Amino acid sequence: MFDKILIANRGEIALRVLRACKELGIATVAVHSTADANAMHVRLADESVCIGPPAAKDSYLNIPALLAACEITGADAVHPGYGFLSENARFAEILAEHDLDFIGPKAEHIRTMGDKIEAKKTAKRLGIPVVPGSDGGVSPGDDAMAIAKKIGFPVLVKAAAGGGGRGMKVAQTEADLMLALSTASNEAKAAFGDGSVYLEKYLGKPRHIEIQILGDGRGGAIHLGERDCSLQRRHQKVWEESPSPIISPAARHRIGEICANAMREMKYLGVGTIEFLYEDGEFYFIEMNTRIQVEHPVTEMITGIDLVLEQIRVAAGGDLPCTQNDVTINGHAIECRINAENPVTFRPSPGKITQFHPPGGLGVRIDSAVYQGYVIPPYYDSLVGKLIVHGKTRGECLMRLRRALDEIVIDGVETTLPLFRALAREPSIIDGDYHIHWLEQYLASGDTKPH
Ligand code: ADP
Fold this sequence. Notes:
Elements: E1 4-7, H1 11-24, E2 27-33, H2 40-44, E3 47-52, H3 63-73, E4 77-79, H4 89-97, E5 101-102, H5 107-114, H6 116-125, H7 144-151, E6 155-163, E7 166-171, H8 174-192, E8 197-201, E9 207-216, E10 221-233, E11 236-242, H9 249-266, E12 269-279, E13 282-289, H10 296-303, H11 307-315, E14 332-339, E15 351-352, E16 355-357, E17 364-368, E18 375-376, E19 383-391, H12 394-407, E20 409-411, H13 417-423, H14 427-430, H15 438-444
Parallel strand pairs: 1-2, 1-4, 2-3, 4-5
Antiparallel strand pairs: 6-7, 6-8, 9-10, 9-12, 10-11, 11-14, 12-13, 14-19, 15-18, 16-20, 17-19
Helix pairs in contact: 4-5
């Protein structure tokens, strides 16, 4: 096992990793930018190192500074959290070159899955069902039109290097295709330095269903069921739940086994998420994330497996926590991502939290790094915290969620809490009857009634 882990992240995920390390008896090193000197992860870690000015490129993405921090503190492994360097294969290699362990998958797997075109090819080869589309990249003027016609309109232009919904454009008809190709490609080039794009069939009203997997790197792998992340705004997840209200045990078993088998064949190491769109009883692979995800707690709540702790264990060469047969799904869990944003315009609202009262009681969990008096800096994402609620049934979970949402107090900044209070009372949500465009349609209809 590792002796000392450096956590190359901030916010709630840095705290989440810190908690797992403490339970395992591993010493922790927090790193922070000058803007995060008073952050909770810095206060709770055994040691901390300032790695640069506020801009992420100069601090949390600053590889030489992170290596120096490892050197100074004698850390033997790095946990990257999510975002920042978590899916940077080169970073994993550089750590290895310095005799440091990267807590995450093998660099080759991060690289393959980070290129969405390669990821789709790999998925197909491993027997995972994929969205119909171009077999590789397409360029404007090329045979793009012929491929699009073959797939059938509407088609979605997607960036090979995509992430966070950027570099994605829908072409409803033939007339839209060339503009969609160039816009998506330019956006991808600006955001990721790579303008390669590919085509996919645009699905009308699918659900976003993702499978959590955990591999030991030696050919052992298990799946931990699905998460339904269909409630999205601008392709960003807002509300996640597990199990999905619409996936049957038989469907879960079928797709879960396909994913676990693929990971066994790859000898995948660590946690990963295989994302699908689900429509008319069929699963279509869209991408794989080779890191811990924001929404991992809902899976933890229903399986009782600590994903971050197990991620650290397998990175150190340990065994999987159990066999596939021993994975059980108990009850239902829902997560709300509470952002410091105006609940109607979604404009970020950084600033000082003047009052903070987290909700409590049976089945209620808050993963957050804020506290009363904390000043949310304007430089990073606007996640204030995640409210995760568990119940024996989905009905009980929703009942408890409404209560917890009414109890929580976050004052001083605007938050998306009013939106969640409305959603938890919305008949379509209560019925589990929604799809990936539902939330945007709901927001456009102006039905958000603040509670
Ligand atoms: P990113 O890496 O940018 O998050 P994804 O491939 O994961 O991109 O897709 C993000 C979201 O975009 C999905 O959850 C879904 O809402 C939408 N999306 C992706 N592919 C399709 C598709 N073929 N048809 C319809 N919607 C899609």
